[in-house]
Amino acid sequence: MNARAASPSFAELYTPKLVTVLREGYDFAGIRADAVAGLTVAIVALPLSMAIAIASGVSPERGLYTAIIGGFLISLLGGSRFQIGGPAGAFIVLVAATVARHGLEGLLIATFLSGLMLMTVGWLRLGTFVKFIPYPVTVGFTAGIGIIIFASQIKDLLGLTLSGPEPGELIPKIEVLAAALPTVNAAAVGIALVAIAIIFACRVWRPHWPGFLIAVAVTAVLALALHLPVETIGSRFGGIPRALPVPHLPDLSLPRVTALLPSALSFTLLGAIESLLSAVVADSMSGGRHRSNCELVAQGAANCASALFGGLCVTGTIARTATNVRAGARGPVAGMLHALFLLAFILVAAPLASYIPLAGLAGLLATVCWNMIERDEITTLFRASRGAALVLVVTFLVVIFRDLGLGILVGFSLGAIITLQRMAQAVAIESGAPIIEGDRADSDNGPSVINPAAGDPDIAFCRISGAFFFGSAGMVGATLDRLGEHPRAYVVDLSDVPMLDSTGAATIESFVRKIGRRQAKLYISGARASVRHVLFAHGVKPPHARFYADMGEAIAAARAGKAAEEETLH
Q1: Comparing C-alpha atoms, which of 101, 365, 61 is closest to residue 237?
Q2: Cβ distance 203 to 211 under 8 Å?
Q3: Would the pLDDT of 282 be above 70?
Q4: 10 Å Cβ neighbour count for 64?
């Protein structure tokens, strides 16, 4: 079967998993399992969505709108069976910066544009490339975000009263918070500690209990019953509405779109990474397989819809998706029901949210930040290699001191450089001809010398193993140039070269021209079709170079060519 026939069809790439599940057969038992899972996830998502919205600099109902509208569409249209969409902690810093700079309307524009970009990335089938982000980058990036989010919650954790606006940058923020330490509110600290203690206690002794919801409910009751002097959702925001807003299109005028493109690009990159990582986690837990490009299209549609309803950026959320799998979900219906349960809360129980203390939500987010710093993974990466540790540390530092997008870019670039260096070092050259004595030390790469043409001084042999690309081309070219100048035929075995780029092909072409000036011939054996294609494009083709299926044929042809030349001379 050829490659064209083996490539997936449009339907295979973009059919939502909901359709797949329904085709497989969906009965009452599946509905019941998904209803239980959806309710479980909604209980987790309810306080978390409000906490993320508040930490992002907007009112708490914006987080609920995001989870309801975005979460429903991601499950309806997505390429993962178990993905749960909603507001994510990873976006807090980006969203807060956008709101501070452009206001709520600017955030809605950036979210809408990000949705269009995500759909475009999915339609162009670029979802696979998002997975190329090195793992140390994601660990360092997530840890950096955890530190930044925790710093943003110190004010509410301690109940501080600031004399001015809270800076966005980490160091100025810490300086302002330190100056406000004399205004610590003991009641707020107590509420935050109670919330943290309940969440960790549930995690240790009752892992199946909804620790987040219990913590928020208990702290709300304590604050109300004891008349504690702490800020609540009601005192700061006036509660939350009891209905969804009427959808409206944000201002998409050219000046506004141009100003918000950088924010939209950041949302797109982070959203694609976060959602596909979440889908991969769901696959590893369930044994399934998601459709990455279909998932990105669904993420894009969900972001556009979230912006229309006044919501935040929406993405796949790892913690809620994992909760969904553990709760026994059968398919995307669980995610859709989770959104409907949250909608029911807004319609029926919205007034209760006014009593939730902000210190309790800050304690909830503090535990989220603790989980975002993956200590075991960091330890593993430090033990694995110095390169992985360097990428992790650099990404972490750039994220917390400069910028999230820059952190990903720097970490990815550094990881790529380290990988290329390792690939270049993995290239091996075996030479079967005497190397010029003056350059012996420079060309000693350690491999054993194997010469299938031993005993024939007129034939030089060279085997190249590994990726022959710009990182290794210099070393390979230097070795070829230092081969003896007397052989009349050169056999170069490329059977162990999986990849050849233009720099490597140009190196071979330069060698062909060099030996051609003294009428020597080049015989190439074992080159793969993709390797031959690049060589042909650079002019390395008959009659200047001849190709053979294996080494034996190439050496036989070299000997036959030498014999023919000798006969012609006589």
Answers
A1: 61
A2: yes
A3: yes
A4: 28
Chain-centroid distance of CA 206 in Å reads 32
pTM over 0.85: no
Catalogue all structural domains in the chain, each as residue range(s) with its CATH number: 29-416 (no CATH), 429-569 (3.30.750.24)
Residues 368/265, Cβ–Cβ less than 8 Å: no
Q: How far apart are CA 259 and CA 267, in angstroms?
A: 14
Mean of per-residue pLDDT scores for the chain: 86
- CA dist 189 and 198 (Å) reads 14
Given a cut of 90, whether residue 484 has pLDDT beyond it is no
Please state, in angstroms and rounded to a whole number, the distance separating the CA atoms of residues 217 and 221.
Answer: 6
3-state secondary structure of 547: strand
Report the alpha-carbon distance of residue 271 to residue 512 in Å, rounded.
49
CA-to-CA distance for 288 and 75, rounded, in angstroms? 15
Which tokens belong to 563? 């014999």
What tokens appear for 85 in the block? 């969409």
Judge residue 66's burial from the number of C-beta atoms within 10 Å of its C-beta, 0-12 exposed, 13-18 middle, 19 or more buried: buried
Per-residue pLDDT, 4: 46
What are the angstrom distances between the C-alpha of 10 and each of 22, 122, 124, 125, 128? 19, 12, 12, 10, 15
Q: Where are the alpha helices (DSSP H) in 287-403?
A: 292-308, 318-326, 333-349, 358-372, 375-384, 386-401
pLDDT per residue as tens digits for the range 327-374: 888 999 999 999 999 999 999 888 888 999 999 999 988 988 888 888
**Triad 24, 25, 30: Cα angle to 5°:** 115
Report whether 265 contacts 92 (CB < 8 A): no
Is residue 286 within 8 Å of 82, Cβ to Cβ?
yes
pLDDT tens digits, 284-314: 778 888 888 999 999 999 999 999 999 999 9
